[in-house]
Amino acid sequence: MHTRCLISVLYGDYDLIPRRNLWGALCNLSAVISDEPWLVLGDFNAVMDDSEVHGRAEDTSVSMTEFRTCIRDSGLVQLPFTGCPFTWHNCSEGPRSLWKRLDRMLVNTIWMDAWPSSSYISVLPSTSDHSPLILTGMDRGTAMYETVCKLKLLKAVFRQQKKLKGNLTENVKQAKNFLDKAQALFTTYKEDIFLDLVKSCRRVYSVAVKLEISMLQQRAKMERHPP
């Protein structure tokens, strides 16, 4: 059993030319990492084929071909995943809405030999336009990793609440939105990590509702008894 693994976290530039430099660097790195488990994850800012795009997008055939070639030449394979098939949204609605699978985890064959049941979960985005990715199915460190990811999700909830503290009605809407997403995740995966997330989001929603009710009561009192 391996006691050491290598993890590379990357970000692919939006423009094609700088991404080519990244693909070259990744291929060069793969030549150095030849006998250890290797995980590559992040926002690649590229898709592999048209099935990873939902909505109207520009022609990216050259980008897709170069991305597939990089993965092949680096000796990497896609780690199996469950959850949302698209990991990025342009935050638009109607005909302008666009979803893409820009975030993923790739591994070498030595990683799969070490952890053949490993995979990851693509979680629905909350306040970010990108989906969190949760690594699962490993013999070591999985519980701690999932806990860290759960805390990152909760930070987004509390950050949004703090940002909108001056608008209590909007707080309620946001908190309800977070709660609905958390419940959907638990319904889909039936895992304790998402049950904990539901409980935390429910507490946030409860506090938001109480604050809004208090505000409405004070407003009504002032209208009945103006100064």
Layout of helices and strands, plus pairs?
Blueprint: E1 6-11, H1 16-32, E2 38-43, E3 53-54, H2 61-73, E4 76-78, E5 81-83, E6 88-89, E7 99-100, E8 103-108, H3 109-114, E9 119-122, E10 133-136, H4 142-163, H5 168-189, H6 192-224
Parallel strand pairs: 1-2, 5-9
Antiparallel strand pairs: 2-8, 3-7, 4-8, 6-7, 9-10
Organism: Sesamum angolense
Pfam families: Exo_endo_phos
InterPro entries: Endo/exonu/phosph_ase_sf (IPR036691), Endo/exonuclease/phosphatase (IPR005135)
Descriptive notes:
The protein has 227 residues and is an alpha+beta fold. It has six helices and ten strands, in the order E-H-E-E-H-E-E-E-E-E-H-E-E-H-H-H. It has a four-stranded mixed sheet. The chain has a three-stranded antiparallel sheet with strand order 3-7-6, with no helix packed on it. Helix 1 (16-32) links the parallel strand 1 (6-11) and strand 2. The N and C termini lie far apart (75 Å). The relative contact order is 0.10.
TL;DR?
This protein has 227 residues and is of the alpha+beta class. The chain has helices spanning 16-32, 61-73, 109-114, 142-163, 168-189, 192-224, and strands at 6-11, 38-43, 53-54, 76-78, 81-83, 88-89, 99-100, 103-108, 119-122, 133-136.
